[in-house]
Amino acid sequence: MQSKPSPASPLPAMSLAGVRVLDLSRVLAGPWCTQTLADLGADVIKVERPGSGDDTRAWGPPYLKDATGADTSEAAYYLGANRNKRSIAIDIASAAGQALIRRLATRVDVLVENFKVGDLARYGLDAKSLRELNPGLIVCSITGFGQDGPYKERAGYDYAVQGLGGLMSVTGERDDLPGGGPQKVGVAVADLFTGLYATVAILAALRHRDATGEGQEIDMALLDTQVAMLANLGANYLCTGRAPGRMGNAHQNIVPYQVFEASDGHLIVAVGNDGQFAKFAEIAGRPDWPQDPRFARNAERVRNRELLVPQIAAALKTRPRKDWLAALEAAKVPCGAINNLAETFADPQVQARGMTVAMDHPLSDSLRLVASPIKLSATPVAYRHAPPLLGQHTQELLREAGLDEAEIAALAQQRVIA
């Protein structure tokens, strides 16, 4: 596990140091984007509703536990997408709150929002209005279906987009087998991919802004992302006109590339080329397979998977999983165990790569989070702030924006801020 950074240690240079982001997003796609920017050094100001904040603060249990083992108000879901940010609680439905957002927008480089199409225009906080105040501002809007098209008014949720965007038609067991039928992916991949694509788009827009001084608007849609991430399956359909179906744990284009059952459990075999298949066949005690014209080349193995896969399944059932994994790994044939999350986080490679991080939190001294996978040699990710409490930095940020104590007190009395 990655240890806590020493408070006395100076922070290393960070790639996005000096970049300021106003984050009006909530739930997952937007916060995933802004957490990535924050991990890279951006100063991210998370704007939340007074009283309730980001919806995911209440998406529990599980919740972070305090020193006594009791639940706090901070849901694990929220904690997983909001580190390295500062929280300000502003009622943007009020005129005074809208004025504060405009003031903050003149002081930042990027604004990220995931309101429904047209909602921010009602408050005078749309991209056009804000960019008139700050021409260099980059505004990234994340919605379910984009700023135009017949579905633009619809609310967009990851689950629905996985279905509409075709992912559930290729995920799950084959329809002709027990348990067949539509299946969503176990994590919200449309949200997560959209957040990452949004991050890439923002970095590109920052480079353009730094070269020209010109900001721009970024229109990100969950459905667009879901269609793009169909990858080889989308290409398969466009090349053939035939929609691929569900294949369970098998691969559409490679054989053998799926889960098999050993004598005491399951393992993954992921043979990627004909040379690896020859090594695999030798280990499986079937050196005849690569000599068989039906199986010698991957294209033929795909065409004849119904003949080959049962033979492989029978062979793998004869020995324990650890024996297969040891032999296949020694021969450099891609393979793997199927871990639960406890086994994953206990895995020596995961630990060696520092894929968890401990952070100090105002309510708990035992906060552990999944670390960033980004490894940069000169400007590494730094873990500067635990996911903030609701409104934790409101007064600090308003002072930075030039408000005096009397102005801040008046806004608090009017319940514009919290």
Automatic annotation (TrEMBL):
InterPro entries for the chain: CoA-transferase_III_domain (IPR050483), CoA-Trfase_fam_III (IPR003673), CoA-Trfase_III_dom3_sf (IPR044855), CoA-Trfase_III_dom_1_sf (IPR023606)
Transmembrane segments: none
Key words of the record: Transferase
Protein name: CaiB/BaiF CoA-transferase family protein
Protein's organism: Roseateles violae
